[in-house]
Amino acid sequence: MSPPPAANPDRLLPADPGTRSIARELLARVEDLPIISPHGHVDAAMLELDTPFPDPATLLVSPDHYVTRLIHASGVPLERLRMGGATAVEPRDTWREFAKAWPLFDGTASGYWMRDSFQHVFGLSKEVNEENADALFDELDAKLQSPAFRPRQLFKNFNIEVLATTDDPLDDLAPHAAIAKDPTFTGRVLPTFRPDAYIKFAAAGWAGRVEKLIAVAGDGMAGYAGYIRALENRRRYFVEHGAVSADHGVRTAQTLRLDAVTAATLFDKACRGEATAADADVFEAHMTYQMARMSVEDGLVMTIHPGVFRNHHTESFNRFGADTGHDIPFAVSYTEALRPMLEDFGTAQGFHFIPFTIDETVFSREIAPLAGFYPSVYIGAPWWFLDAPDAMLRFRSAVTETAGFSRSSGFIDDTRAFCSIPARHNTSRRIEASFLARLVAESRVSEARAHEIIVDIVDAAPRRAFKL
Amino acid sequence: MSPPPAANPDRLLPADPGTRSIARELLARVEDLPIISPHGHVDAAMLELDTPFPDPATLLVSPDHYVTRLIHASGVPLERLRMGGATAVEPRDTWREFAKAWPLFDGTASGYWMRDSFQHVFGLSKEVNEENADALFDELDAKLQSPAFRPRQLFKNFNIEVLATTDDPLDDLAPHAAIAKDPTFTGRVLPTFRPDAYIKFAAAGWAGRVEKLIAVAGDGMAGYAGYIRALENRRRYFVEHGAVSADHGVRTAQTLRLDAVTAATLFDKACRGEATAADADVFEAHMTYQMARMSVEDGLVMTIHPGVFRNHHTESFNRFGADTGHDIPFAVSYTEALRPMLEDFGTAQGFHFIPFTIDETVFSREIAPLAGFYPSVYIGAPWWFLDAPDAMLRFRSAVTETAGFSRSSGFIDDTRAFCSIPARHNTSRRIEASFLARLVAESRVSEARAHEIIVDIVDAAPRRAFKL
Amino acid sequence: MSPPPAANPDRLLPADPGTRSIARELLARVEDLPIISPHGHVDAAMLELDTPFPDPATLLVSPDHYVTRLIHASGVPLERLRMGGATAVEPRDTWREFAKAWPLFDGTASGYWMRDSFQHVFGLSKEVNEENADALFDELDAKLQSPAFRPRQLFKNFNIEVLATTDDPLDDLAPHAAIAKDPTFTGRVLPTFRPDAYIKFAAAGWAGRVEKLIAVAGDGMAGYAGYIRALENRRRYFVEHGAVSADHGVRTAQTLRLDAVTAATLFDKACRGEATAADADVFEAHMTYQMARMSVEDGLVMTIHPGVFRNHHTESFNRFGADTGHDIPFAVSYTEALRPMLEDFGTAQGFHFIPFTIDETVFSREIAPLAGFYPSVYIGAPWWFLDAPDAMLRFRSAVTETAGFSRSSGFIDDTRAFCSIPARHNTSRRIEASFLARLVAESRVSEARAHEIIVDIVDAAPRRAFKL
């Protein structure tokens, strides 16, 4: 009898017995290392206040668009999943929908993480199914109300050493400051500067937001000059509050160096509400270049996440808001797009630039060759739809032969699902062990070196890439 | 001694003994299930009339451009393969060319299917080679003249439950009606509505064909309005004759919602022979949208097959016609292209939309994310050049981690080679078993669930996606 | 205890014991066959004069941009690697930088080749590391000064039967002629016609170079007509000196048939220094077509290497010149781009056209389908960043199911690193054995046929594709 998948200590390791045994040893070297999470979307206030988690559906289903999307695809309306603040159904009903849909998640990354956390975080007594949905809801609910499942206790159990959040440039970062001063909290919770909503002309409320930004942090300057100054100032504020990186949800990877007059003209046009979509693209490319320039100056690591068509289904967006499961990737290119920026900053001392992608064709074709030459370029770990066992193996296969193991960012969980963090990092460690074990089995890397490499990948790489 | 490849009961299963043993059990669950073939190109009249098959070359070589293309690449002129009605050589000579070229097919999908049907359909006594070409021609020829090899008997032997054909909108579907009424024929043979030749301005004879369409089915209306009405009427006629789907060999996946006046203007321009290539693209995109609208109304499942440059070599096209081996794929994108249609119909009740692709980069990047949100979108099985063991494994790996197993169309053989149907479906079942076996071996899916999933994939998925 | 990776006779073979044992037998069939290298960048004069090699750093590090790039990415300035003729540091210091960076190469193709040649060409006594850098420098240096490590002796030891160089159209090919006449030299050293610098308007010195070309070989004709005539004449000169192919480092795969007047107009514009970047692209596409036309006439095999953004980092280019590690691939397409040429020459008697790519998405989508129909098209082996174990396996998986094994070019080492040639060919043979062994283990190819196929791939394919 095999153990249930999530309880199998060999889960995700390769089937071939010889390779599996190598992988097991490699995994043992890193499985218990602390978690370093340099990019994600957990709310710092939750950790500051140690707020008890809500019921299981509100914690595990409604806010996680990785999970709700597949249930929606099976025909369940988003309101039944309490998306976008919908309250027409009870959390228990949402949980029942989830339990009914649970078999759909077999083979998916989300399904793997959930099963792993049901087993290892929550110690659920049974597999989820339609029949025991209510019982498991109650079992989980009871646990979530107990002190053992408070955020701070879980943070400790999860062995998290560093956790980065993602924050609005005007955020006062009070929770981060409070946590940093709290002697009872030993982990590092770092903010990340994310200025998208102040850069994309088409973002709802852009003009008002920018006006406020300039008023608050523009040193009395107006217009484009005040805007640039204010962004520089807020970045400095973030650095003072422990930030190590700035993140950019750009539409494409395009960069562009406009002169200040041209940039200001576009900016003013947008302030008057007259900018076209093409203007917005040009300005965004210019600002990506500017953000690199600021990173060179203030030392914040720069990460970009391009190539996603956000809010593909307008009706769902209008009714339930953003992040409701219909952000769809498209093809991107980096070689020509990044050139204006890399020409000027690609070899700049101390500059770290981490491109992520969901278009996996660029790993072997563009990103590995770029990271294999430019000291500033680190290869972003597989992101979003690619943050899954097979996709991670394809990633390593695609980049390693060109760029080796030293040029990667290390694992990024990129999640708002706090309870899934250990499962995600554990998955990554198992896959790294699996990939390296194959290279050892094929005499491409010595076993001794593989043991060094896996520790480097899991522990040193994120510290190095993110300057931790 | 290993058995010859086609006789090995473990063929296509993974080499690792533990994984193979899991795969064997999974295969046993589905190997003998009836064949459901919801998309293909077999001629219904052949089954109506139970016409004896012609000689082996005319049956197995000349009409199959998967086979003739590789022989042509090796230097054999198409006339020697009796393409496009060429009769300069005898069928036996064409068969000799095939036998001589047989080693070229090692490792190809076509070679695998042919070997499989030589073994399991025809029970050939020897491997094909140049020396025994004549003897095998005679052996096959004799079998093909016997009652055991008539179409209806093979249909029964193959255990086909449903077989869809592909038909011209003005086809009277008499063979389908005759088969449906025939109490001695137990399978379902369904027509499929394929209007390409009435939509693409550049298709030879477009204007005359459209004129006839409007005259026959336009309810007395003229021009664009009559055209739309006629298409609606003919779709209804197909539905009445059992059709469950409409298929579209579109150039790209672009969709577009034009107002009726703009569409009519383009249509009239084309009728006058004045439409440009750009006009044709716009009109085709508009009609793809219109076809989705009609599918929402009449319930026909909508399938698209974009991204193929048809008739790449003009000289071969002029001499031998279409489907002679030089249709070459190119890169396509779906995320932005499908949006106008999915905005309006993506969540429409009962709408089923199945995009196929030969550009495998879109599986993980676009199609799985789309099918993982929109209830209407089912992932088309690997098509054409991708309908092969390794490509099918890449497909499952690319889509499953995002969309699970429930969002796929199920296997489609898409073939005019009737005798290859069992080999194709059997290949697919073996690959599904292989993929699932690996997930079980890696503790990603429980063995019990894998047994449920493989039955779902093979049997329930095509029924679900195609409303059978 | 496992042997060190490079000493393991099973290195690169699949981990599964059954598959490995099949692969071992397949490898034994081809491991000792002579090396056929129909495309590369070794200097013929080195073999003519049998010049002793320089010190280890100047031989193995500085000229190899596969190696220097990753050291540069780790933060070492190119001058410390003695790039572009820099002499500020001693070779021994460059070697120390290499030794320090050596762990970065684990898992890379370059690392594998270097380790393999340290073991099998140089018989190094220890693994490279920072501590023994000096000792190994001295050990290698002493060997390189001994007669056993002269180019001609190594050429013999490497068992090279054919080695093609890459040459300027105006090169007098004296070294090739001298080698051909030398009875003590038994291998064939063949020139390759590479006219890029005479075709790309933007290449530095284009006008002067073209002027000289016309003066030398234009048969007294002037302008575009003289240019075409001169290219034809120089190709003939190459053919007379044993050339079998012409190579083209085109920007994209675009081909175009301009009439002579239009082409001449562009040419004249470029001579006046007035051509735009768009003009240059059009002219290059036209010349790719013209080169195909000439290949049809003079029989030179035509190879193209498109899709690389050369000299991505201008500052590094200005300081250190071309080929210094920042050539970065981008997405390309072939289906529409090659059509003008294939329409006219795709089925021309004796024409051989070999497209290479670093954009691996085109293997299954475009190149295999093209080579599976056009008798002239041979699939270029994995090139540059794709010339690595995993990438070669992906290549075989991507093309074989469509085009079988007969349509590939055979392995191309494409290297200027003479001492790495045996390692590169050996790697390829091991990967071919691994791929075929899997097909045998999965009953997709019989073991007997696999033994024939591997000999065909390794030995017959390059002779066939390159007319050797």
From TrEMBL, chains A, B, C:
Belongs to the metallo-dependent hydrolases superfamily. Uronate isomerase family. InterPro entries: Metal_Hydrolase, Uronate_isomerase. This is Uronate isomerase. It catalyses: D-glucuronate = D-fructuronate. Pathway: Carbohydrate metabolism; pentose and glucuronate interconversion. Keywords: Isomerase. GO terms for molecular function: glucuronate isomerase activity. The keyword Cell wall biogenesis/degradation does not apply. Pfam families: UxaC. It comes from the Bacteria. Its EC number is 5.3.1.12. Gene3D superfamilies: Metal-dependent hydrolases, uronate isomerase, domain 2, chain A. It is an enzyme of class 5 (isomerase). It comes from Arthrobacter livingstonensis. GO terms for biological process: D-galacturonate catabolic process; D-glucuronate catabolic process. SUPFAM superfamilies: Metallo-dependent hydrolases.
